Amino acid sequence: MIAKTVLAGLAAGLVAFVAAAPTGTDAIGATCTSGAAASNPSFDIKYVNVSSVLPAGLSGRNYEPDRTWAAEHALHTTYLGLTAGGGMDAYGAFKCQFACNGEQGCLSYFGRYVQIGTSQEHFDCITYDALLDSSLFVEDSESGNLAVGGFDKPCDAIKA
């Protein structure tokens, strides 16, 4: 009974989590973004979900930040013992914000499940020293990773 309640809450929260899109952000050289926080009823996510609107040609969950951009801006990757298909997307994104908050210079993060279907399957939080923008997302049909999304630090978090 408790498990059903938790899963129902997670599913309901995911709808709000995906719907929170940024408003008019130009990520080039910026240090924060405006837009609605990606919070949902289950998890208080303070960051802005920049992957709620994907570029033309991308759909589903097989995308990642451009690898050249990612290599230039990656700060750290945090491993979470979560597996895909368990309704834990919002929880993974929620936990990633703490990794970014604890990383000096972190302005954004990208969450994804990696090594799907193996005993090493887990959730990665990759933190960056620059803001993500949905235009940076490219198709990733070869790795088998499942994207949860990219999140930018909101300006009100920096002022606080």
The biggest sheet amounts to: 5 strands, antiparallel
Specify the overall morphology: globular
Report the average pLDDT across residues. Answer: 81
What count of domains describes the coordinates? Answer: 1
Report the helical percentage. Answer: 25-40%
Query: What fraction of the residues are assigned to beta strands by DSSP?
Result: 15-25%
C-alpha-based Rg, rounded: 15 Å
Distance between the termini: 40 Å
Number of helices: 4
Task: Flag low-confidence runs.
Answer: 1-27
Could you say which structural class the secondary elements and strand pairing correspond to? alpha+beta
Kindly report the spatial arrangement of strands forming the biggest sheet.
1-7-4-5-3
What is the β-strand count?
7
Give the ordered list of helices and strands: HEEHEHEEEEH
What does this structure look like?
With about 160 residues, the chain is of the alpha+beta class. It has one domain. The protein is built from 4 helices and 7 strands; from the N terminus they run αββαβαββββα. It has a 5-stranded antiparallel sheet. A hairpin with a 7-residue loop joins β4 and β5. It starts with a helix and ends with a helix. The relative contact order is 0.24.
